[in-house]
Amino acid sequence: MSERRSAVLVLEDGSFHQGYGFGHSGDAAAEVVFNTSMTGYQEICTDASYRGQMVVMTYPLIGNYGVTGRDLESDAPWVAGLIVREYYDDYSNCYAERSLDEMLEQAGVPGISGVDTRAITRRIRTTGTMRGVLLQGERKESPAEMVAMVREVPSVSQIDAVGDTVGALAGLEYEPNPNEAMPRIVVVDCGIKWNIVRSLA
User: Fold this and answer.
1) What letters, b where the CB count within 10 A reaches 16 and e where it falls short, cover 121-130?
2) How many CB atoms lie within 10 A of CB 64?
3) What is the three-class DSSP state of 8?
């Protein structure tokens, strides 16, 4: 991972969460949701159902086992941003092909670490899903301007998430066994994740 850069997550209730950026160095604006899984960050990032959302991971350590192609749910990340307590770049996993930072950088997805993800989760759980902006680097905007930016973010209901994610199965190969009599199953891809196809297979 490159040198740490400052970042801030601003929520529409006016709260500010200072941290450090990783992944892509750009900004993100999206609905903010949370996930309480202890593992599976790469499956979450590549799950098309998170299209148009930034995901808060409540488990405190993310990135420690890297990224492997066999655990992806589609061919690229769909999250708009990733929010973690601690990002760990020096992964340890014999199957890992690259770091989470590298995957997000390549896909143009920014992340923020060093924030209190459990406090953010409690806030979302209490007040409901909120929109947010993830801003990186030195900023010229005032706090009030940053909050105004958040309130301009469209809600998930205003974006064509299904239209954007159709075709998420591209690249998944499955060879049926010609010696087995198998039922024919049709999958309509409206943003499916690969594990559904694996389970059907």
Assistant:
1) bebbeeeeeb
2) 17
3) strand
Which one, of 136, 150, 167, 192, lies nearest residue 21 by Cα? 136
Counting beta carbons within 10 angstroms of the beta carbon of residue 172, is it exposed (0 to 12), middle (13 to 18) or buried (19 or more)? middle
Q: pTM for the full model?
A: 0.82
Residues in Cβ contact with 66 at an 8 Å cutoff, skipping those fewer than 6 apart:
91, 92, 93, 96, 97, 98, 99, 100
Helix (H) or strand (E) holding 164: helix 161-165
Distance between CA 101 and CA 107 in Å, rounded? 10
pLDDT tens sequence across 9-54: 999 999 999 999 999 999 999 999 999 999 999 999 999 889 989 9
What are the E-state strand segments in the chain? Answer: 5-11, 16-23, 28-35, 53-57, 61-62, 81-83, 86-87, 110-113, 130-136
